[in-house]
Amino acid sequence: MGMTTFHSGGMRYSPCGRKRKTNAWKTKKRTPDTSSVYTPSQAQRDAHQARLDHDKKYPSFDLKQHSIKMNREDNSWKIEESKKFTVAPAYNKGAYQVIPKEMVKHIGK
Prior knowledge:
2 helices, single chain, alpha+beta
């Protein structure tokens, strides 16, 4: 059976014309809101206190408080070498190529 204009777009029928169940449209009964105050058990309070004591005894490492100079390798030569080259697309191709500065006038030929 094909889709008819009578059933399409309605809430009781799906777009393919099949009748839908209507249980989802019934309003659900709300349960009364019971607010209670959370009180942790003694074991939870002890665990929390033990965690606080542990944090005091073994504080986390803070990099801002400590000045550590990392041994970084010198990369200034890479910047100087890269000034001698340029990157350009090859003629009629999608890939890029690295070209020396003296050959820039021949790009695209």
